[in-house]
Amino acid sequence: MIGNGLARCGVLLLTAALAGCAGPPRGATPPGKPAVPVFDQDRLEFGVRSVLVDRYEVTGLDIVRCPSGQPIEDARIFSCLAVLSGESKQVRVTVRGANGTFEVDRPG
After folding, report:
1. Secondary structure class of 66 (helix, strand, coil)
2. Could you give the CA distance from residue 80 to residue 66 in angstroms, rounded to a whole number?
3. Could you read off the pLDDT tens digit of each residue along the chain, which spans 108 residues?
4. Residues with Cβ < 8 Å from 102, sequence gap 6 or more?
5. Residue 46 lies in a domain
6. Is 31 inside any structural domain?
7. Do 100 and 83 touch, CB atoms closer than 8 A?
8. In terms of residue numbers, what domain contains 46?
9. Nearest CA to 103 among 56, 57, 51, 62?
10. 61 within a domain of the structure (yes/no)
11. How many structural domains compose the chain?
12. Cα–Cα distance, 108 to 89 (Å, whole number)
């Protein structure tokens, strides 16, 4: 987690690797090319949900769905779906570094 500066801007860093979110890459890796780890989808969704509920105090959160097979690559950006009281919202996730740390924006 980072200091209050980014949290005030609606962004929170979460180290997913500590929660075991990094998993083995899916699919075959071409010879001579290192495998890129991917996030474990269930744990990634749990991490995003935790940030939304615990840090941003989002209420009425029904589900969080993130795309499977997201590589742990610095600066990679993807969106998860959050359903709040029946309304679908996009949540932007930005990977920070190769250790599984990511930022979670407030639902848009």
Report:
1. coil
2. 4
3. 333 334 334 455 555 433 444 544 455 556 666 688 999 999 999 999 999 999 999 999 999 999 999 999 999 999 999 999 999 999 999 999 999 999 999 998
4. 13, 14, 16, 47, 93, 94, 95, 96
5. yes
6. no
7. no
8. 4-25+36-105
9. 51
10. yes
11. 1
12. 6
